[in-house]
Amino acid sequence: MMLSVVLVTGCYAQRESKKEKKGKKDQTEQVQAPAAEAQPAEENVVTEECVMNISLFNESAKNKQFADALEPWNKVFNECPSANRVIYSQGRNILHWEIEQQKDAASYQKAFDKLMKMFDLRMKYFGTDERYPTAWIKGIKALDYLVYSKSDIIQPPYEWLEEAIDGLGEKAEIEFLRNFVVLSDKKYAADKAHAEKYIADYLKVNALLDAMIADNSNATQASQAQQYKNGLDIVFAQSGAADCATLDNLYKDKVKVNNKDLDYLTKVISFYRRVRCTESEVYFSAAVDAYKIKPDAESAAALAAMSFSKDDFQQAIEFYRAAVDLTQNQAEKADYNYKIAQIYYSKLGDYPRTKQFAIRSLELNPSNGGAHLIIGLAYANARGIFDDSVLQKTVFWAAVDRFVRAKQVDPTLAEDADKLISTYSRHFPSKEDVFMHPALDSGKSFFVGGWISESTTAR
User: Is the pLDDT of residue 2 over 70?
Assistant: First the structure.
């Protein structure tokens, strides 16, 4: 199923340079004089016959006349394999054709072995080529192995692809990247002990694909990298290696051992976020250790959210307060203060502090209608502002004032604000209440004391 998701193709004969002709159907290399080639590791004697045979097979191969190309190519391959790089660029096409002509297993295997040997000799003689170095050759060899090998053994191409990726980095063919992850996935499916390496492989490839996606100089590659990245994310998610319990068993001891290694902790935290395992104790522990080494607003806010999910509300407040101090962004400061106000209101029932931090949020972001709503709710739930039960009802005037202001600064809150206004207006002092308290006559200014400390209008 995995290979049906990620197809292996043999279409990467050579990577074109910008100077080469666009739209070229066959990626081949032209015959050049030996002096123009990258210097081979060893020199064979290049006879006149070799030069003639190189010209013969190359011309035939360019015209896809592989039957005519095979004999002169075999002679060159056996007698002067270091003469010219085209022996390998065109030789790959010729050998693909030869393999496909075989009718029995023995002949097929012989042709396949010759293909693998061809890559080995190319690495030997032309592995230092700047455009097509050994790392690239190993990657192409792996792709051809996956297409033409009759064996179920995947370790060789897996190793070749890893060497190719490590050697080429962001210059690696995308085919190398995705087939490497697919093979690692197959290894994990066969042996769960491969889990940590599989995760490392997946993250390595994701980092390279992210770099390709961010490369504005190659829009086609960026689009393809994004498409393949989405596909590999699905493969990884379906593997089971991303299960939070599996990850915890894998990383819990390692996080303890590496609790002073910021680079390691950052990688673990990033991975847990990627696979949405942020409720994990291991993730929390790694995040706390990383925060101790290098505090920043983002990690503080993440730790606050995690603490909240664990019902450790005081700890959540402390982390949000740290986030306020660590960020220079005014909007973020406003948001963190608002979150603190929400915790004090909904989880701790501390209404004075609810107002305190909601006001701080409004000072930084006056358009935060939610802060007005939560202040109004705090007022509505306030007790003991007045000893007199009638005067106590005046807190609802102040609360409704806040609800009105909420929809004024943020019209999207109008529906919620109107519901609250309707609800709490029913608790205003009645006409009978006002008869005994002239200070509450409609239209008069009235000061609601205590921690509310706001002037309102009687109604």
Answer: no
Looking at every residue in the chain, the average pLDDT score rounds to: 88
- Give the pLDDT confidence of 407-421 residue by residue, as tens digits: 999 999 999 999 999
Q: Is the pLDDT of residue 33 over 70?
A: no
CA distance 352 to 160: 65
pLDDT tier, 298 (very low <50, low <70, confident <90, very high otherwise): confident
Integer Cα distance of 374 and 380 in angstroms: 10
